[in-house]
Design goal:
Length: 347
């Protein structure tokens, strides 16, 4: 008898404890449109001190086939010395159909409790076929021409012309400099050839002399220059007598005497206003030419000099080449960009 009483008491306590733990499942919107949201709740009422474990669903994980869990959160409230713990699952679905969310396992303390099933109805978005009549496709519209859109293209074209114009101008300068660098052989005539050349020029323009004094001055200057270069006598700074005295040391006496007669007449014309005829003018020129021929020696080798390019000019040419190259590259880049802009405007 005592045993039955104990079993009865234990049964009563079990019923009381079970009555104190309540687990429910529900949704706030049992009917939603495709892509809409609803909240699925699992609510547990337990005494204080009890631990509760809810089913976990990560984002995008399905709580049922076709029903996605977007996010989860929990809240806890106290009612009549009991705890009301609620797990909230935000859910959605993308197919129009009826879904059944199966019973979920909730662990309260050491006991496991199952929730009930919940139904979710997902409907398609209704389309008003009367108001929303299908419209015919739009025709291809032509875009009106706008000068404002083409202004950058014209600016780029002018920029290309400017670059190429400057490059061509610099190329002309470079080519001119290049032609200027061509080594030009410059000959230095021997004193004999130079004297013969100068006497020939005087003879050809003899009629152009207005005064005989100028003619004889030019002739004697050729002679003095020749003596200076041939005999190393500073004849240009000497009087006629001083020059003749110096020549006696290096030249034949007969030749010096012939030259003395010529210079005496020349001095009379230059300083005493003595006048001669054309034949005398030719005679004196030929006499000086004869003196030059008679004192000719083996000519030295003619010196040929070639101008060397200056360092500054080399740098200048390099800078010109570099500038021309940069201008051409810039022109090509701007041209390609302009073509792309034109293609964009036309297409």
């Amino acid at each position: 008898m005592k045993r039955y009483i104990i079993l009865f008491v234990l049964l009563i306590l079990t019923v009381i404890c079970h009555a104190q733990v309540q687990v429910t499942a529900s949704v706030d919107s049992a009917q939603i449109l495709i892509g809409g949201r609803s909240h699925y709740y699992i609510t547990v009422n337990v005494p204080k001190g009890k631990t509760v474990s809810f089913p976990e669903y990560n984002n995008k994980k399905e709580i049922a086939a076709g029903v996605e869990v977007l996010q989860t959160k929990s809240d806890t409230t106290e009612v009549n010395n009991e705890l009301r713990i609620r797990k909230i699952y935000t859910i959605t679905a993308w197919d129009a159909k009826h879904y059944t969310i199966p019973a979920q396992k909730v662990v309260v303390g050491d006991a496991t409790t199952m929730t009930g099933k919940v139904v979710l109805n997902v409907q398609a978005i209704p389309v008003d076929t009367v108001k929303n009549m299908p419209m015919p496709p739009d025709d291809i519209q032509k875009v009106s021409f706008s000068w404002h859109e083409w202004i950058p293209v014209f600016i780029f074209i002018l920029l290309i012309i400017l670059f190429l114009g400057v490059a061509f101008y610099l190329y002309r300068i470079l080519r001119h400099k290049k032609s200027g660098w061509k080594p030009k052989k410059s000959k230095t005539l021997s004193f004999y050839k130079q004297a013969k050349h100068d006497l020939t020029e005087i003879a050809t323009k003899k009629q152009m002399y207005k005064e005989q004094k100028d003619y004889y001055t030019d002739v004697t200057n050729v002679l003095r220059t020749y003596i200076y270069r041939r005999f190393n006598i500073n004849a240009l700074e000497m009087t006629s007598q001083e020059m003749l005295d110096s020549l006696k040391e290096t030249c034949d006496t007969l030749k010096v005497d012939d030259l003395r007669a010529i210079l005496t007449t020349v001095d009379l014309v230059k300083f005493a206003k003595y006048s001669t005829n054309l034949n005398d003018m030719d005679y004196y020129l030929n006499s000086i030419e004869h003196f030059i021929d008679s004192t000719k020696i083996n000519e030295p080798v003619e010196v040929v000099s070639e101008p060397k390019e200056d360092i500054k000019d080399k740098r200048s040419r390099k800078m010109l080449k570099l500038t021309i190259a940069l201008l051409i590259v810039a022109s090509v880049v701007v041209l390609l960009y302009t073509l792309s802009e034109v293609y964009t405007l036309v297409m």
